[in-house]
Fold this sequence. Notes:
Layout: H1 2-9, H2 14-47, H3 54-65, H4 74-77, E1 83-91, E2 96-104, E3 119-126, E4 137-140, E5 143-146, E6 157-161, E7 165-170, E8 178-181, E9 190-193, H5 197-206, H6 210-233, H7 242-252, H8 259-265, H9 271-276, H10 283-300, H11 302-317, H12 320-323, H13 329-342, H14 346-353, H15 364-378, H16 385-396
Parallel strand pairs: 1-9
Antiparallel strand pairs: 1-2, 2-7, 3-6, 3-8, 4-5, 4-7
Helix pairs in contact: 2-3, 5-6, 5-7, 6-10, 13-14, 13-15, 14-16, 15-16
Pfam family, one: DUF3458
Keywords: Aminopeptidase, Hydrolase, Protease
Protein name: Puromycin-sensitive aminopeptidase
Amino acid sequence: xxxHALCCLLHxxxxxxxKGAEVVRMYKTLLGSSGFRxxxxxxxxxxxxxxxxxxEFFAAMRDANDADFLNFLLWYSQAGTPQVKxxxxxNPDARTYSLKFxxxxxxxxxxxxxxxxxxxxVVGLLNSSGKDLPLSTVYHEGLLEIISTNEQxxxxxxxxxxxxxxxxxxSDVSERPIPSLLRGYSAPIRLDSDLTDSDLFxxxxxxxxxxxxxxxxxILARKLMLSLVTDVQNNKNLFLNLKFVxxxxxxxxxxxxxxxxxxxxxxxxxxxxxxxxxEVADPxxxxxxxxxxRRQLALQLKEEFLFIVYSLIGGFCGSPVNFHAKDxxxxxxxxxxxxxxxxxxxxxxxxMVSAFSRWRRYDEGRQALAQAELEKIMSANGLSENVxxxxxxxxxx
Length: 397
């Protein structure tokens, strides 16, 4: 039934479906999971099985939570993507931190003039150690809003940006923070801030919000690639900013991060994306730059990448049903990896071979497959002494 509700809300184009999904997600951001559930319950109570309008879905969310959504319905009726600018300032004497927002929706056919949108901006503040600062109060439109309740620290809050220009002032901020803006991509907008490259490098290394950590890396990568493209066009030598390398390193070494996120965070913007940012696209220069950065990262982060490979392969070998697959595919996979890694780091490769050390404990079919893989490793041309020693000992065990 939930998918039926969404289908009633959205029109039959990919763009509108995507926008509609983002609008529904903004309801949840504004109301929280429990508030969103109350709204859905009321929506189904009122309209189950009916063809309904966006206004009726809006009314259910509003009424179930006694919420003031002001101009939220403009997301359905007003075309275009809001462009939001943020400027920041810190007052050390008053211990206050200000975020000034301005928004504009560009004119589109049939809508030359636009009204300000209702934009939920999820925000956190990081201290100089990269930790989230607890948020106590925020002053807005003449009112002081209490953020923390029940003496429990709150590290993220939702700012409701509804006007063309407005300011939010956080109090009791002990040091100049680095703001983490639009956490979780809380609204489908284009955000421009006064964050410096140093601030972005800091967010890349420390932000607890994975979207903003990724976004900081992408912004920096785009700037870096465009700068290096200019160097290529001017026949200058290419150098990779070490801060960018350190930012990628911090992601690779953070064991708490989701592996899928890591793979996306270390992926550079595509060549087409960079060319779209250029006045005159230069595919040769862009390709040269992207290849250069990838090679430099591989070279300078060799040990970190090998550590990740070792961790992943170690996890695979620790899964009996996968490593000891009856068809021998697990043994072949490890054998191929060992031979590839032996050319790069024999020490790591030799540690991986030790996974074969107990091959005789299994049934005859698996023994034959593991033995064949060990013999294949030992017969490889140019095999390192490290791998040969462990493989021969395993074979003789």
